[in-house]
Structures are given as structure tokens and as C-alpha cells.
Fold these 3 entries.
Entry 1:
Amino acid sequence: MSKVYTTEIASGHIPSDNPIHQRLLKAYVLAREYIRGDLLEVGCGEGRGIDWMIDRAKSFTAIDKIGPVIETLKKKYPQGKFLSGNIPPLTAFQDRSFDTVVSFQVIEHIEDDRLFLNEIFRVLKPGGMALLTTPNRLKSLTRNPWHVREYTAPELSTLARTIFPLVEMKGISGNDKVMQYYERNKNSVKRIARLDILDLQHRLPAAWLRVPYDFLNRWNRNKLSGASPTVATGIRHEDYILTPNAEEALDLFLIVKK
């Protein structure tokens, strides 16, 4: 399969990426109990969670902007439907086409987040449900130049309530093992950030920061993994926890219904 991994698109095959990979995978594990009928994944990437969802759906459709990845997924999952395209809008899909929509770690990359949610609302059937995850800004360690914006739980809930009649906000947190890794990472990032005496991370255009961000992020993950290899590789999706206390969570887990 084509490799598109940066530190922003964590790999399940790179040991130092494992804590992030397992954190992202948790959303798909949780999604299984919500999935019914015709399912659409918006922003499927390389298909991290397809195996967890496809058997729960009547039909599975996915869209992502990375064309070569979509072509590979078509071959791997011939029972699904895969499309390549920029989003939003979701012009490939008719109104009221899906019972369930999932979109994990995508909305933070979208310029027009209101249009994004409106399009999800449009393609959902009446009574349909959508699940979204995104980083909790309160737990972010530094500016991520790949993100247009990040949200707090109240901010995302407020936006969602302007579109969906039913909104529930939860979060994905971690057990002691996860939070120990998080604190080590936080302290390491703080040491790196002290070198940015001009606060360039907040003053320069995002596009200028992506290469150094990716280099330093990879270096930091490798350093943490080398210092405690069993911690980094020993984290599993079971170590991440769905919590009703979204404001303290690592990721927001938004549930909306049409």
C-alpha cells in the first residue's frame, strides 16, 4: 500500500508512532456499537479502521483526497465503494444516502467547518447518526501547522447544535499508562519549545512550519520510544477510554443525530 505517513498520519508499523496510532484506532473500535445500515467514512486515509467497521454495515463507502490510496483500498476491499475527492462539499453523494457517517481526525483540517457539518447532515437519512473525533485543544502541546483550527468541547458542541437537533459530546482519554506517556511527551515538547525564543510557531504561516514540525515531531517520538520502548510499544487501544468528561479528554468524541 502506498505510504503517505508523516507524523500527522501516524503509522501502525512505526514503533514510535504506536501511542498515536492506538489512540486514533480507538475511535473505530468505539464506532462499532453505533454503526447501522449504509455507512460513509469521510476522510478514510489508508483505511486504519475499515476492518473494524465494514462487517457492521449494510454497505460501506469511503472518500479521501489521496487518489493512490483510494485505488489501493478498492483492491483490498472490493465489497466497499471508494472515491477520491476534496471535501467539503460531498457532491458525490445524494441527500439522505447514509444511516451512519464517521469522520475521525478530519474536521480540524477543514477551512469551512460549518459547510462540512452541513454536508454530513445533508447526506444522512432522517434519524441517521454521525460520529466525529478531533483533538481537544486544551490537551494540545504545541501549534500543529497541519490543522486549520482545534476545538474545545464547548466550541465544537456549540457549532454542531446550529446544524443537528441532537448533540452529545464525549471524549477519548487514557489510563495511567497512556497519561504517563502523555506527560513525558508534554515535558519533552516544552523543552523543545523553549528554543523558539521568537515564538515563530505562532507567527509564521503554517505552510512554512510543516517540514520543521514533522522533523522535530519524529525526532521527539523516536527519543521517547528509545527511552522507554516498552511504554511506547506496549500501549493498546484498550488503554484509551471513552469518557463523558470531554473537557479533560485527549480527543473529543462527538455524536450527532439528524
Entry 2:
Amino acid sequence: MKRLIEGYRAFKSGRWPEERAHYEELAHKGQSPEYLIIACSDSRADPATIFHARPGELFVVRNVAGIVPPFESDSGHRGTSAALAFAVMALKVSNIVVLGHAQCGGVAAALDGKLAAGVPFLSAWIGLLEPALEHSAHIHDHAKRHEAMERDCIRLSLENLMTFPFVAERVRAGLLKLDGARFGIADGRLEILDKASDAFVTVE
């Protein structure tokens, strides 16, 4: 905890005084974020840092590889689906962004099952990426396939979002937009999925 306490003290003496009134407003009025960001748990790809967001601006869901699972109606414990439902139905976000990133360990585990061996729950979770894995099977260069899969995983999650009735209903009504993006850890480049061309375009 030592490093975290040091970080808190730096926050309390630096950013907190600047943001105090904003935090007090959020405490009294509650949160009303415009964006839901579904991102990977990777410590190098923090959405609030990448998008330079203020407190209360982003509702963030993070999991291994930033996967949106398909809609399922059983009573299982579904953390990502529950957070998605809360963001859309209770907070009424107007934009969902699936944020992938370069050098994704979840994608690496999907490509090489040995990386998930012995890690409880991981193989089943990564198994959700099977359609993306199949889509890139024709690419024989490992690095190029890894990069292609990172983008395909974003596309797959966007497709899966539309299997949730409360998402599809709002999208069709023009109340909700879905977007995909990929962040380059080494170069800081952000790519946005262009829906018309289905290609990722770098933000200049």
C-alpha cells in the first residue's frame, strides 16, 4: 500500500484542491457520464488517462481483453453485462466505446492457449474470442495476426453489444452510438473504427 498512499497524498495536495468543487457537485448530484468505455484490464491502457477525462465523465468497465460477451438471459454472475445494463438503462449513456490496445495479453492467450493454462476462469473467458481467432487464421505472420486480432476483437465486441435488447433498441432509436478504438501503447496512437469502411483510422 505504500506506493498507493504516496499517490493519494500527491493527489490530495495537487489535483484535489483544483477539482474539489467538481467532486462536491458529483457527490450531491450523482454521476451522469455520457460515455461507457469497455476496455482491457491492462495497466498500461487506462481509459481516463488516454482520454484525459475528468472525474464523472466516463463510466468504465474493464476486463481481460475488453470483451463484451454475447447476451445471455440466465441468472449467472455476469459482471460486464450487469455494468453494461446499468450504464445504458440507469445512467442512460449516449455513447459506448470498445477500447482495445496493442500488445494485448488476452489476445496473446487466445493465440497461444498455453498462456492461459493453470489460470482459473481465463480459458473460458478467452474462448469468447474464437470468432476473431478464426477470422485471422489465414494470417501466418504471428505479429501481424496478433495486431489483426486486436482489431477483430473490437469488432466482435461491437457485434455482441447489439445482441443485448436494451442496447439494440436504443441504437435503432438514435439514442445510443457504438464506437470502437485501439490505443498503441508504444506510440500513443489512437485508431477509431470507421463504420463506413470497417477500417481503423488514426486520429491526427
Entry 3:
Amino acid sequence: MMLSETWFMEGYIDFELQKYRLLAYLQEVNQYFTEHKLYPQLGDIVFHYNNLVAFKEHKKLIQDSFPKQLSNVNLQKLELVYEEMLQDNAIMQELENITQYALAQMKPTLDNGAELYEQIEKQLRIEPVGIMPLYKNEGYVLVRYGNYSEVKAYNYTITLFENQNDKYRGIRLSYIDTWQNSIVNTYESIKRDIIKAIRTLPNPAVFSVEYPLPVPLDETLLPVAKRALVKQIGIA
């Protein structure tokens, strides 16, 4: 179950109705966290929590508060709805009750997700493989986790994004292949295999990523590893 960007002000604005919608959403998110699945649920609940805080502080629904896929037309409509609601004290009071309740209910779930993220990030081990080139915004990542002998190789690309307030880095992973980790297939030998097979980067940056426990790869390990890798490359 997913909540829309403006779930708390859509349809019939009623505390009990929105309460049960919210609780059903949180139940599902908590179930994912129990299974050690972080994404996309953690990013989603962070967005909704911050959006409610912004609304509670009576800030306008501006573009930075919503996903990039929302068009200017949709944003204008939302701002018109917001302005109309400001004129109705009863509606605004009901929305205040909804947001106050939602923030209190979301906080423990958000904290659980953040705690799980931090636990995984602390045990994550990222090491350079071989000599690092000066250019590190593109290269390869070798991932091994749990008791699995497999080493999964990915190409990574880091891109710089800018908006009117800040700059931030994004990272994209593309799966290449899987090797069996052994005396023969070391990280160095896998690196050589990749360079021979993919000749676009003759001297690429290569990092190994290791995690000691078996966690969901796509929903947890890779998203955490991507952010950790961006941090490491940013301060290298």
C-alpha cells in the first residue's frame, strides 16, 4: 500500500477515515522493516513525514516538497486547493488533527527504519581494489554478503544534480555479472576480467563491498551501499 503525496487532504477530509488509511500503511511499512527490507519504504515514509511537518508549519506546497514527476500544472492545482482550505477553519482544524496524529504515529516507524539503516551501514565494509585512479565518478563495485560465495559485479556512475538551493550526488548501478569467490577468483582477478571484457575504462576505480549478514539485496544492501559509496568517493 502506498500513500499519495497529498493523502491527508484528498477526498473526504475526515479524521477517522485518514486514521485507518494511515494505520494500514504503517502496518505494511513495519512488516517490510521486520523483514529487513528498507527501500522504497524508508524513503517513502521520510517523504511523507517531512511533507506533514511542512504542512503543519503552514508552508506552501512548493515544488521541492514533491517528487520531480509532478508537473507545474499539478503543482498549481495543489496550491489552489491549499489556498481554498486556508479559508475554511473547520477543514483546517480537521487537517491539523490528522497531521498531528499522523506525525506521532509515523515517528516510531521512521525511527525503526533509520535505526535499521544505521546498523547495516555500520557493518558495511567498502575497500578499494587495486590502485585508485584520480577519476572515480565511474567504475565498478564488487558486492559480496552473508555466507554467499558469489561476488556480484556492477558498473556505477555518479552524477551531480543541482537545484536552486543545493547540489547533491546521485549514483546508478548496472549489473554486469556474477563470479564465484575463490582462490582463483579474487577481487583483483575479477577486476582484470571486467577490464578485458569492458574496454571503456582502461584504468577504472573498483571497490569491494562486503556485508556479513544475509539481507535483501535489492531492497536493502544495494541502496545502503550506494549511499555509502557516494560518501566515500566524496571524501576520498
